[in-house]
Amino acid sequence: MSAIRLLVLGAVRMHGRAHGYQVRNDLEYWGAHEWSHAKPGSIYHALKQMAKQGLLHAHEIAPSTAGGPPRTEYEITEQGTEEYFRLLREALVTYDQHGDVKTAAVGFIVDLPRAEAVALLKERTLRIEQWRASVLKDYVPEEGTAGLGHIGEIMNMWVHTADSEAEWTRGLIRRIEGGAYTFADEGEPFVGVLAEGEENPYATGERHPGDAH
Amino acid sequence: MSAIRLLVLGAVRMHGRAHGYQVRNDLEYWGAHEWSHAKPGSIYHALKQMAKQGLLHAHEIAPSTAGGPPRTEYEITEQGTEEYFRLLREALVTYDQHGDVKTAAVGFIVDLPRAEAVALLKERTLRIEQWRASVLKDYVPEEGTAGLGHIGEIMNMWVHTADSEAEWTRGLIRRIEGGAYTFADEGEPFVGVLAEGEENPYATGERHPGDAH
DNA sequence: CCCTCGCTAGTCAAACTTGACTACAGGCTC
DNA sequence: GAGCCTGTAGTCAAGTTTGACTAGCGAGGG
């Protein structure tokens, strides 16, 4: 799974109703054009595709108020909301090497109830441990990695990365269980998008991490 | 960058001359269909594309000896070799979140001279530290991550991951400097492909890590 | 008043990826 | 000896991603 659908669904959902450029701006605001690789083309494509699949509802709108071609506004459907949560849960639970999906998922985690977030993260640690075990079982011979030569370094790297991920996940679980942050079932929801006309403080040509791709 | 070009160039290079199915088999042997996402379509596409770009030279060959359509054999060109090393060096040096590229690069690292491998890995640690610093500088306000709410967890995760990566890289550097493994400028090169007709011990329907994508 | 510049909003072709499909040969069974 | 399975070798359409491009409007300068 790439992170784009999750990001776009999440952005549209926060707005209630949004056109492509607004979504694009949110992603830029979130820095997602850097840590994910969300280019305009992908965003517009995702919007159209998801509209075709019934995840979004497209309203044809007159030429924009501020120059440029006519724009389409999108609204998330019930089906789209389901898909959003499906993607979010999947992203939180599965251990793969796509950092952008994980980043997006953490950004949206407060859309879930606190208890579910914790449960999903615990499932995540479980899966990481299973993956770790299967690396050792399937790839590493009984005599250890010595016989593999430098290829053993790959398994070494995988195990090291998995351990680090598991450790981070457990830390996050502790903080959430300890009462940190505000989740979907509790008070004021977190608002992470730019209102119409609001200025993006990060829109300048500033350097950001992730530029080094 | 995706890992496919690096993997395909590396496989063809080891064989001297190889047809698509052979490359495909090597990648399966390496488990790359699991930890990278190298599907047949991508492999054949990469071969054709790189042949068009002059990185590989294509020999049209008569119908195969063992059924199936006629096959094309590829040989790496000088330009392709240059590109291979360019990709390999880039993969070793740059810190991004694509685990498959890193895995492929570690697998091919012994194609470089030992001293260069160490230099590249040191550059890698440097870049990781720079990235880490720029996360803190650009994304985290002076008062710390507290004001960011749960979004602060993203930066926390990035820093944690970066530290873990840097630590692993330093460990690898130590082992290589300590004389481990056999590099390009030293003795027998490592052979990591299946000879024509050799059986792939991993070709069974066995489970492997990475299946959980 | 015209010209350029930057912002808004989005399109497009080319490249790449995915998953399913084709087609042929040999061997095995019934 | 017909049907069927496995292994070999690769194609194809559909979906996705990329990077460059278009086009309208308003502000500001000369």
Automatic annotation (TrEMBL), chains A, B:
Which residues does UniProt call coiled coil?
Answer: none
Task: Give the top-rank taxon of the lineage listed in the UniProt record for this protein.
Answer: Bacteria
Domain (Transcription regulator PadR N-terminal): residue spans on this chain: 16-83
Q: What is this protein called?
A: PadR family transcriptional regulator
